Amino acid sequence: MSTWQDLVTASLIGTERAVVPPADTTGLLPAVDETGDPAAVLLDRAALLTAARRAGRRPGHAEPLPACEPDPRPMVSPAAVARLARILSREPSSLLIEWLSAVTARGLRLPPQFLPALLDRARRPREWLLPNLIAEAGGPRASWLAGLNPDWDFVLAATRTGDEAWRLGTAGQRRAYLTALRARDPSAARELIAGSWAAAGPQERGLFVNALADGLSLADEPLLEAALEDGTDWVGTMAAGVLATLPGSAFSRRMTGRAVRCVRIEHGARGTRLVITPPQVAGQTRLVLDVVARTLLRTWTDEFGLTAAQIVALPAGDWAPALFIGWSRAAVAQRDHDWMAALIHHVLTGRLSGRPAEIEALRELVRAADPALSAPDALPPLQPDAPPVIGSALNVLRFRYEMLKELDDDHSG
């Protein structure tokens, strides 16, 4: 008897060149064709077979599904389960990545009802950090589900290790391999990056620069200096940001020299303030911002003899927004939590214009700052007349604090 594909083939070849096959409707009486027109017969049989296909078929024998291995890890707390639901519905991926990383670090188990949604989320373009995180946090149940759905087979691929992970793995597996190699043997990681750079695309070259940021040393300087000239602007910008955090590098020395020529402290009749002397070129504000963002933060404390909080509180007139943005970017890149705390404290007690670039810098700060800053009484309250957008941005810090606290709550039940 024919199948649906036989009818499709006959229609493509043409009824004048092929015999119309009978419709396979097992269990039903054979169809009686009322016309001798082959084309009409083909359409009638296709309609009959369509109805039969939609009606279903007799149940066959199915093998039972393999059992899932037990997961001995304790379940996250009910509050953390509710938090995950909120993150999946409307929060950015950065919070999901932080939540999953914290779950894994604490040896906790994901709520199984969310695994399908998480596995589907990991398949999205540009979510290259999620597959390995979900595979690790999902444990045996994630692997079991992946065995039932080929769309989730990246979980099974996450078991690749060593050279196989680098040659055949996903972007997340390659990143994990390079990160582990960087921690174990920085020289070997540099050689791997240098040998792979020419054939890599922009996304992978960005991965290489990020990998060099961990355990950075002067031995990495030649690779990063070459990356400054990368054909993709944002890769060069990333390399500049990493070099700026490397004390003793030529790039860091250049930025320090420019910074101390641009920004100085003045003690006068109007009190102590910051005075900005920008280079006499076009785009002065952007140039000052970039120089500040790429200058080691200890330059300012050493140069002025003040703490981060004291420097940030100094008035700077119209240059205050550029300094805030530049210092914020530097604090995030250099992972300097003292400066992050000082800048966030300044937002709460001082003035922020609410310009989009300032708000985006604040968002970067609260995504990177220590969530403990949002513990009760750790920071002063926001000024009542502050723009609402500032309060909204600062809420992310509170969200992160509560998110991690929920994962630390008792989940023995």
Question: If you had to describe this structure to a student in words, what would you say it looks like?
Answer:
With 413 residues, the protein is mainly α. It folds into 4 domains: 4-55, no CATH class; 78-159; 164-244, no CATH class; 250-408. The chain is built from 21 helices and 2 strands. It has helices at 4-13, 38-55, 78-90, 93-105, 115-122, 130-146, 154-157, 162-168, 171-184, 186-196, 202-213, 221-227, 233-244, 250-262, 284-293, 298-304, 308-313, 320-334, 337-349, 356-368, 388-408; strands at 263-268, 271-276. A two-stranded antiparallel sheet has the order 1-2. Helix 8 crosses helix 9, helix 9 runs parallel beside helix 11 and helix 18 runs antiparallel to helix 19. The mean pLDDT is 86.
Order of helices and strands: HHHHHHHHHHHHHHEEHHHHHHH
Average of pLDDT: 86
Q: Show unreliable segments.
A: none
> Which percent bin holds the helix content?
55-70%
Q: How many domains?
A: 4
**Count of β-strands:** 2
Order of strands in the sheet with most strands: 1-2
Pairing-aware structural class of the strands and helices?
mainly alpha
- Shape designation: elongated
The major β-sheet equals: 2 strands, antiparallel
Strand content: under 5%
Computed CA radius of gyration, to the nearest angstrom: 30 Å
Number of helices: 21
Q: Distance between the terminal alpha carbons, to the nearest Å?
A: 59 Å
